[in-house]
Specification:
By secondary structure, the protein is of the alpha+beta class. The chain has two helices and two strands.
């Protein structure tokens, strides 16, 4: 069931975080469009994004990660050395 939260309200942000942790999807504004967020570590939630968007399973999603401790976004995750540059 859709629910609209005030993104400036810390309690609403906490509620959105709880929904993500429970495997729900959360729509949120970005700089240009609305995005659909889910816990990337929850396979059921990720499937939910593909289903909600009607996205083919062979079209990968973008996963945003926090900066590594003391690092920056470019170094947030150790890339797979076998992946193409």
């Amino acid at each position: 069931m859709p629910l609209t939260l005030n993104a400036r309200d810390p309690a609403a942000i906490e509620q959105a975080a709880q929904r993500l942790a429970a495997g729900s999807l959360v729509g949120m504004p970005t700089e240009t469009v609305y995005g659909l967020a889910a816990d990337a570590g929850n396979a059921s939630a990720v499937r939910g994004i593909f289903e909600a968007k009607g996205r083919p399973s062979d079209h990968p999603l973008i996963v945003h990660l926090p900066p590594a401790q003391g690092g920056d976004w470019a170094r947030a995750a150790d890339p797979d050395p076998a992946a193409p540059a």
